[in-house]
Fold this protein.
Amino acid sequence: MTAGLRQVSDAPALDLQDMAISYVVPSVIDRFLGRNTPPVATVEAITLTLRQGETLGLVGESGSGKSTILKSIAGLLAPIAGRVLLNGQDDLPPRVETRSGQQLRQVQLIFQNPDESLNPRQTIAQILAQPLKLYFGLSGQELLDRSAQLLEQVRLGAHYLDRLPSQLSGGEKQRVAVARAFAAQPALVLCDEITSALDVSVQAAVLALLDDLRRASATSCIFVSHDLAVVKALSDRVAVLYQGRLCEIGKTSDVYGAVSHPYTEVLLGAVLEPDPDFTPTLSAGDVVELSPPAQGCPFQRRCPKRLGPVCENLAPPRKTFSDGHSIWCHRDDLAPHAPVDGRAVTTEGV
Ligand SMILES: Nc1ncnc2c1ncn2[C@@H]1O[C@H](COP(=O)(O)OP(=O)(O)OP(=O)(O)O)[C@@H](O)[C@H]1O
Ligand code: SF4
Ligand SMILES: [Mg+2]
């Protein structure tokens, strides 16, 4: 898997603008009567751009909001604030029910567990026929030929067309789920832990075919995984999430580089151990928190580099370096590189 060889265009495929998502939304009556202070949003202030053909890795510990963000982009969970723009101009309605056929076609979500996404009563032919009929009006021999071609692309033969999902292995089912997603010729594929339910021996094969398919079609991808080595191998850029807030985003080599956000250091130090000389400079601190603090830095209660009241009271500013690498932190000593082109680091939100 060599992410660097892929063609990535400058054109935006997806823009998330100040996106916020909450599972608990007070009723109109409660708000009118001033009851129930709105809870802190599960996900907040997510602003990022994904370019055409680019793969963005989305990482963060369990409960950090990765699936929540993907579900919201896919229209399964309406955000409480912010915009989701497709191809730089198409404002995506918050829910699938109100999206057009073209909008539905362009965003495909592949789930962790294919058993939950493949209808057990449909044959593989019927499963693949759905997007091909709906979005491209295929029928008859054309439909059969395209279905067989899709199965070939995921290294399954046409003889699988008559089988039911229960007659496939876990890895084969996930290949069908990948084939169905790419049958729609999407602009964006959202991959949520797509190999974590699979045997280790088949994980690499599924990831390799995903890599081939998106490379061949220049499809953009948001890739969520707890396997940080896989994220590193597949992603052009990586976004790090803590308690539903962005900590860091940048080119994969920068985020995995020597100096980064204190939480990224904890995350990488806890999970990645490819280098025998690597010594984590921080420990993960206490247990995983249930909700972010009402103000200040979301990582303040666990951060070994905490500065004091500024971290407790003020949201960390976004510091963007000349190479597009951004870190949300009050510290001034986290600059990962000297700014290039003589341009200074820009700071927002202070
Ligand atoms: N349906 C729901 N109702 C209420 N809260 C939810 C719901 N689904 C998720 N949450 C909460 O939202 C937060 C983010 O959950 P999410 O599933 O997005 O995390 P995640 O980063 O995908 O975690 P994991 O790596 O374990 O899959 C968690 O605190 C979780 O408890
Ligand atoms: S803003 Fe403060 S608490 Fe948050 S990561 Fe930076 S140093 Fe740590
Ligand atoms: Mg998840």
In short: The chain is about 30% helix and 20% strand. The radius of gyration is 21 Å. Residues 1-5, 272-286, 337-344 have pLDDT under 50 and may be disordered.
